[in-house]
Amino acid sequence: EAEVAQSPRYKITEKSQAVAFWCDPISGHATLYWYRQILGQGPELLVQFQDESVVDDSQLPKDRFSAERLKGVDSTLKIQPAELGDSAMYLCASSLAWGTSGVNNEQFFGPGTRLTVL
Amino acid sequence: DAKTTQPTSMDCAEGRAANLPCNHSTISGNEYVYWYRQIHSQGPQYIIHGLKNNETNEMASLIITEDRKSSTLILPHATLRDTAVYYCIPEITGANNLFFGTGTRLTVIP
Question: From the list B43, B49, B99, which residue is nearest A102 (CB)?
Answer without folding.
Answer: B49
